[in-house]
Amino acid sequence: MSEPGRLQARRASPAQTRSEAAPSESETARPLSLLARWRRWRNARVASPAFQSWAAAHPLTKRATRKDGEALFDLVAGFVQSQVLFSVVELDLLDELMAAPQTAERLAERHRIDPQRMEALLRAATALGLLEHSADGYQTGRLGAAATGVPGLADMIRHHAVFYRDLADPLALLRGEADTELAKFWPYVFGAQGPVQSDVAARYSELMAESQGLVAEETLRAVRLGGIKRLMDVGGGTGAFLTAVGTAKPAPDLILFDLPEVAPSARARFEAAGLSARVTIVSGSFREGALPSGADAISLVRVLYDHADATVARLLGAVREALPPRGRLIVSEPMTGAQRPERAGDVYFAFYCMAMRTGRARSPSEIARLMGEAGFERIAPRRTARPFVTSVVEARKPASG
Fold it and tell me: What is the pTM (predicted TM-score) of this model?
C-alpha cells in the first residue's frame, strides 16, 4: 500500500472512531458509575461545536473555554515550541542576550540567518517567555534566565534532536516497531551488548552528571542521612551524587559502585572536590554477581527507570543481601503520578524510556511494591519540592534479615 493509502487507512471520522472504540453501556461488564455517566454527558456537550460557540461568548463560561482552547492549541503546537527552544539553545541566544539587548539585524548577521527569519525566531522565543523585547532589542527573559541556571539543561535539549526523530512515528514506538536512535545513543544502559567503550560510558555519565546537581539537592532535602556511617551509591556513574553528599555532609564515608569505564572520571571528580580520602571506588556491574558489602545505606539514583522489572527485582534483591540488618535503601528518580498522571513522569520520562527500549518510569507505589517483594520494610515515599526533577522512596532491611 502506498504511503497516502496507509495514512488514509489509519484515519477515521471522529464519530466513527467514537462509535467503534467506545463500548455501549450494555457491552460493559457492569453498569457505568455515576462519575462515568457524568463524564459521558459532559463530553457530549463539550464536543459539540454549537456548545463551544455558545460557551465562548457566555460570561460564566468564556474564561474557562478560552483557557481550554489555549491549552489545546499548546498541545497541537507543542512540537513547534520545542523546536523554537532547540533553536534558541543551539544558537546560545540565552547566554548571548543575558547581559544586554541586541537587535534582530545584528543577531541575524552574526548567526548567518535571514533577518526576517531571525526576527520570527526571536518573536517566537518572546511569546514563549524565553526572551523579552524592548526598544533596545531582544534580551533574555525570566524563564530564559532560569533555563541557563539549570545544570545540563542545554546539553539535554541539544541531544533531544535524537529523541525528536524517535518520536516521528509515535505509533511505531508504542507498538515496539521502531528502531530507535536513543537505544543506540545509550548503549551503556544495556550492558548486555558487549564491552562498553570508554567514550560511550563517558558520554552517558557526563550528560547525566551535569543534571545530577538538582537531583542531589532534592534528594538531600527529602532524606536524613544522620546515623549513616557508610553510603554506597550503586550505578553512580562519575560520582556526581556522592560529590554532592560529601560536599554537604561531613559524614558518612562514601562508596561508588559502577562499571570500570567510568572510574577514571569519578576519581578525577572526587579529587577536584577534595573527597578522595572519604571515597572508595569499587568497579563492577550490578547485573553480574553480588554487590560489595560494608555499607549501612545504599542509594539508587536514576537507576531503576533505566531497567526492566526483572532486572530491578534482581538488583533490589542484591541490595538487600549487601545491607546489614536495618540497613537503608534510598531510591531517587523521576516517577509517574500513579492515579494522578503528571507531565514529567507520565509524559516525558515514560516516552523517553520507551525510546531507549529498556526500563520504564514507575510510580512510587510500584517501586514500593518491588521493594516489598525484595524483602524490605518501612517503605515510605519522601516528598520533594520539585517532583518534576525527582521523587524519593526509602526503605529498610528488616532487623532479622
Answer: 0.84
